[in-house]
Amino acid sequence: MVDTVVRLAPSGPPIESSAGAAFEPGTGARLRLAEASTTVGSTTNAITTVDQVIGVQLAAAPIFSDGPMTTSLLAPAVNKNYRATLCCDVMSDVTNANVKVTLGIQTSKDGITWTTKVQNEHWLGATTETTGAGNARQCRLDLKLTSGTTLGVVAGDAEIAVRGIIKADIAGAAVAHPTGSGDEAGVGNCYIALEELF
Q: Is residue 188 domain-resident?
């Protein structure tokens, strides 16, 4: 077995732990990162009241009609840890009630069977505008540092993948910033990342 020496530069001195011991990365040191994102154009996409998968292209299609936005890491390891992040810009045009948006992160080892690992809720206040402007915010969800074993990884698995799901308790929320002026002008974004760590 050959020890891998970690150096600041190819010809630099080895990085060592305290007392001159060989360098050993601690828990949480990142090994690999996979990520995906999609830009939301001026056409809003209504969030339904049932879970739907966040799609690849949100500019002119319902959230899931263009296929899911997923990211994955090949050859996951039982003895490694994993962490995931999901962010999505949402907006509500509802004028008479607050809207609750729920995000979820799902994992899969085969791209067919998906399991929801974590969810959280975000509130958007009722808008007082009558000209089409709405309340917008970025929602974020994190799957904390989790062992490969806890995620169901076994030796020989080909990959581990993640995707995001979203729903709202009232129709009218949307994963898009509308065109126009003011704070709601421009475009939104949805982003998902999967990390492998010691």
A: yes
Residue 169 lies inside a defined structural domain of this protein: yes
What confidence tens digit (pLDDT) does each residue in 114-161 have?
999 999 999 988 776 555 556 778 899 999 999 999 999 999 999 999
**Is the per-residue pLDDT at 100 higher than 60?**
yes
Asked if residue 117 is part of any domain, the answer here is: yes
Q: Which domain holds residue 184?
A: 27-197
In CATH, what number is assigned to the domain containing residue 51? Answer: 2.60.120.760
pTM over 0.85, yes/no: no
Q: Assess if residue 11 is contained within a domain.
A: no
Compute how many other C-beta atoms are within 10 angstroms of the C-beta atom of residue 173: 28
pLDDT tens digit sequence for 37-51: 877 655 556 788 888
Work out how many domains the chain is built from and give that number.
1
3-state SS record for the chain: CCCCCCECCCCCCECECHHHCECCCCCCCEEEEEEEEEEECCCCCECCCCCEECECCCCCCCCCCCCECEEEEECCCCCCEEEEEEEEEEEECCCCCCEEEEEEEEEECCCCCCEEEEEEEEEECCCCCCCCCCEEEEEEEEEEEEECCCCCCCCCCCEEEEEEEEEECCECEECCCCCCCHHHCCCEEEEEEEEEEC
How many residues in total does the chain contain? 198
